[in-house]
Amino acid sequence: DLEKKHDDNIKMIHDLQTEVDRLLVQRDEGEYDTVGEAGKSAALPEFNKGHYDLPVRPGGIVETLSMQEVVHLLSEMNLQQYQETFKREQIDGELLAGLDEDMCVKELGMSRLHALRLLKRVSKRKAEETK
């Protein structure tokens, strides 16, 4: 029950951050409005289009993820079976950004395909951050 509440809180924080980002875009376009339908139609910055799977923050987003956000990302990717290992090893965004396939397989017990999926998601996001 406590873990479900925690996951619900992470999702709520993620949703709130998404809404804040939408409102900031509106403000920057001079079209500030209240939270709601107007916010949902706001244009998103190029670096963030279609990527609400990771929280939006200025700077290097992957490196700033908390351990709980990394665990939530695993859940969103249907990789829940690795959540306990990531928690035990305290994998946060900084560590996640430095992982390679070999480390994921040998140190974290991931299958090669699962490791590849996770690392592709992270590297794609890191590449978009530098645009």
Q: Largest sheet, described in full?
A: none
* End-to-end CA span: 41 Å
Question: What sequence of helices (H) and strands (E) makes up the elements?
Answer: HHHHHHH
Shape: globular
Counting helices, strands and paired strands, the structural category is mainly alpha
Helix-residue proportion:
55-70%
- Strand % is under 5%
The total count of strands amounts to 0
Rg, rounded, reads 16 Å
Counted by DSSP, the helix tally is 7
List keywords for this structure.
131 residues, mainly alpha, 59% helix
Short description:
The protein has 131 residues and is mainly α.
What does this structure look like?
The protein has helices spanning about 1-30, 35-40, 65-75, 85-90, 95-100, 100-105, 110-130. Mean pLDDT is about 75; it is low at about 30-55 and about 55-60. It starts with a helix and ends with a helix. The protein is mostly helical and about 130 residues long.
